[in-house]
Amino acid sequence: MVKTGKGSGFVTDFIGGGVLIHGTILNGNQVETVLGTLAGERPPQCGNTCKVEVLLRPDDFVHAEASAMQAEVVHKAFRGADILYTLMLAGGQKVLSLVSSHHNHAYGEMIGIRIEADHVVVFPCTAA
């Protein structure tokens, strides 16, 4: 389990897999993150510029060789037909990605990924 945010770690533990990415609410239901702008349901108590955490699951990160977004393989766990990768982005952020075992990458290898999140869950940041 990779937990990157504070305060909502219970959520990632409860769900059983995912990462919390820091973000800021923009106008509407847009959240600016280190991964770009994502669409997610704005928490009712959050206005514009509210600091939030975005829950992203391993299946939200898709293997995409040609993608400009590159990540380093820092850990992998075989899960039958899939491999659960822990990947480190350029800024040091770790994410999880569930990839077909046909794509067996080595530790330290850079791979392309893209986000395909059907449902982005957003939580207001809590005090440290």
What does this structure look like?
The protein has 128 residues and is mainly β. It has one domain (9-124): OB fold (Dihydrolipoamide Acetyltransferase, E2P) (Beta Barrel), CATH 2.40.50. It is 5% helix and 46% strand. The chain has one helix at 9-15; strands at residues 19-25, 30-33, 36-39, 51-56, 61-63, 70-79, 82-89, 94-100, 110-115, 121-124. The strands form 2 sheets. The chain has a 5-stranded antiparallel sheet, with no helix packed on it. Strands 5-9-6-7-8 form a 5-stranded antiparallel sheet, with no helix packed on it. Residues 1-15 have low confidence and may be disordered.
The averaged pLDDT comes out at 84
Strand-residue proportion:
over 45%
Residue stretches low in confidence (pLDDT < 50, at least 5 long) are 1-15
Judged by helices, strands and strand pairing, the structural class is: mainly beta
The CATH homologous superfamily: Nucleic acid-binding proteins
- Our measurement of the CA-to-CA distance between the termini, rounded to an integer number of angstroms, reads 20 Å
Reading off the top of the CATH hierarchy, the class is best stated as Mainly Beta
Instruction: Walk across the major sheet and give the strand order.
Output: 3-2-1-4-10
Biggest sheet record = 5 strands, antiparallel
CATH topology descriptor: OB fold (Dihydrolipoamide Acetyltransferase, E2P)
How many alpha or pi helices?
A: 1
